[in-house]
Amino acid sequence: MAEIDNGKSKAQIHNIRAAKIVSETVKSTLGPMGMDKLMLDGGGNVIVTNDGATILRELDVSHPGGKMIVEVAKTQESLCYDGTTSTVILAGQLLANSEALFERGLHPNVICRGYHEATQMAVNYLKTEISQSSKKRDVLVSVAKTAITGKTLENAIDTVAELCVSAVETAGDAESVKVVSFPGGSLEDSYLYEGVIVNKDYVLDGEDDYTDVLLINTGLENEKSDDNVQVQLDAKSYQTYKASGKTNLISLAKNIVDVLPNGGVVFVRDKVNDHVCAYLKKNNIMVVRHTPESTLKALSKVTDSVVCQTPEEVESASKASVSRQKHNDVWYLFVSSDNKHSEASLVLRGATSHTLDEVERGFDDALGVVSLVLKNNNFVVGGGIAYARMAAHLRQHAAQIGGRAQMAIEAFADALEVIPATISENAGHDPLDTILAMRHEILRGNTDYGPDVEEGGVVDLSSKGVFEPTELVRQAVLSASEVTNSILRIDDIVARRPLE
């Protein structure tokens, strides 16, 4: 067993230091002036990004304490789309402050109890006093701009922000927005396509534009029987047997021709026999096979039609515009209609594939935070102001808790201020001066003053439209506190037997 000294074990120290190393790795990427990381693997593959989620996902971490920090970042990304860097930095600072509390004689359980109390107080204050509500479009645009600032997308921040808000408003949420990247052009050439873009081509070449669509959730091929049956046939009987299968498929194809007398496009989930494709093409009907079920559902929404489970169920076609375009030697089908629908596709343009990868990551974050505000209507002023205000509230009410837990609450408050301090530091300014100035403004009632990354000191960030979702800040505090308490409660690392 590891030696215990005042409730502090070697395992805890090792876990804390491993977590702090992970935190320090992404710390310089936070804020509008954050730096990029170049990640290189053994095969020479390169990723250049300042997206915290991407860095942590690709980071080679073997220590269990470091892995716990990476896991909490994944949770933050899945729930809030953004804020992973803030969560990891906050967790690292909480653990660093716990080391100082160890030296002052506090037991890990006392620290955990104090951190838990502080978390509840901070989150309640965030929801009741700091959070604001609005459904205005300009707030959504400002939220998108805040998420974009400091990323590759910043070069076209106005265009990108408007695209993000329009996409989420059209689709309803970030999950329904499909993102398609086409190399070539510039970021300003990106646009919102109100429809579905299918990364498929016709089985056989045909015309580029069609107006009728059928969706079939099966295939047009003879199904193989699961029964293990041996049958002896002579040559004539075998030809008759083959012809019967082909005749059955052609009869199904005739049913489709009857529904599409003027031609059209059939999207099929599974395989389609080549004879059927050739027969349908003679009737100006194009076939798209191996269409994913998720794409069929999206097409169903756009065309306002029902996906037929079998070819026999086909009764009528849906009106839609299907156009065929080629980008970077790959064919795509663009499907839209006049029906009101909840499908949108963001078409991103960029000079290179590496640029597009980073652009796509930035769009994902921006779409996510806009979706959060649109869903909950709650936001706070960004720039770390919410964290500083929570810290001031905790210091003011820490004495009400009493006992040694009060020290842990004050340490929690100090840790919260690491977010605005890091933003200021990454911009080349003195973090201590920034924090002291923010504390002074909060006492004076100027609660919207945060780091001025351009001139130094503090500035009214609300007037500059720096906003972020309340849920993002709330989840960051909860996640950082939870992983910190989990690490602090580990007093030993022991070997386990291998899985059988």
Could you list some keywords that capture this structure?
single chain, 500 residues, alpha+beta, GROEL, domain 1, GROEL, domain 2, 3 domains, 16 helices, 49% helix, elongated
Q: How would you describe what is shown here?
A:
The protein is of the alpha+beta class. It has 3 domains: about 5-135 and about 380-490, GROEL, domain 1, CATH 1.10.560.10; about 135-190 and about 350-375, TCP-1-like chaperonin intermediate domain (GROEL, domain 2); about 195-340, GroEL (3-Layer(bba) Sandwich), CATH 3.50.7.10. About 50% of the residues lie in helices and about 15% in strands. The protein has 16 helices and 18 strands. The protein has a 6-stranded mixed beta sheet. Strand 10, helix 9 (about 275-280) and strand 11 (about 285-290) form a beta-alpha-beta unit. Helix 14 packs across helix 15. The two termini are about 25 Å apart. The model is unreliable at about 1-5 and about 235-245 (pLDDT under 50).
